[in-house]
């Protein structure tokens, strides 16, 4: 059985999609090349500012980000447009250097006056939102991504994913669904797994398991090659106690080679047991004990022995209880092995195992002596049978039955001409 679900298991961090974009000279100059959605006057930087920006570009093209940053930091802009324009460059260069906090401050200065040319303002809004995500200003990022899409008129799938991720980080789980659905719509035919991850997380956190299952039933069709979807769907079926579907799902995952961990095999075996198909559980354990995927430890040997016993494969159950007994030197396992061997009429083996159980201090000695008496009797060893039944008759729990056997053993031995 799988461990209890947790959000960390359910999702690979959808926040990872919020990587910082790398700006290019074309991106800086995009305002002159793109059609503006919002009509606003086209502005140009002051000549002195423009010259220094051009020099910074030269250094940027030589991959000298520090040199380019030093130039733009040294610009003393007095006009409001120049200040916003320069702030965007500074913020972008700091972002390239990985200094998100400083980049964030300058991108806010670039955006707040709302006077940059349309393409420049849109790009600044986008970078500001990305920086807000990276600095964990989730509330700010939600607003800025929406502002960016409103301003540009774009329905951006990744922006919707990041909005949903921000709500998830804020534990506003109910508010995750709408932007996640918007992301799914925006991705169109090129579906991405992240919005589905976020929807499942939202439903799981709110204990809306049926809704989570609906999403997972979609994901296994859209992304059949991803084993995690199959495993999670099976787990959710278990959560809702829909064991037939859980078994069918895990079995399909197994047939595709997706169950490649010990916990996976145990989960499938457990479902076979729940569905009262213990023979399949036993065969599954046996196969993967042989392959080495399952350790030959006490827990696994007990599980396979118990499964074979439930499947009424007595000889196989006795075999694995014997291996378990040898591994652990535990009297109860020798006792179980002996009882099963007696049941399977393997009386010689039963006697060895039962005596070992007594030697190791097993409980319920009355029943063990009873089984020893029966085993010796059916082997024609009447003297040993009689000795064992005498001991069984001294145990209050087996006294009544044992007394009936005492006379039966004596009479049989007498008929056979055996002195006891």
UniProtKB/TrEMBL annotation:
One Pfam family named in its UniProt record: TPR_16
Keyword check for Secreted: no
Superkingdom of origin organism: Bacteria
SMART domains: TPR (SM00028)
Signal peptide: 1-29
Swiss-Prot/TrEMBL keywords: Repeat, Signal, TPR repeat
Protein name: TPR repeat-containing protein
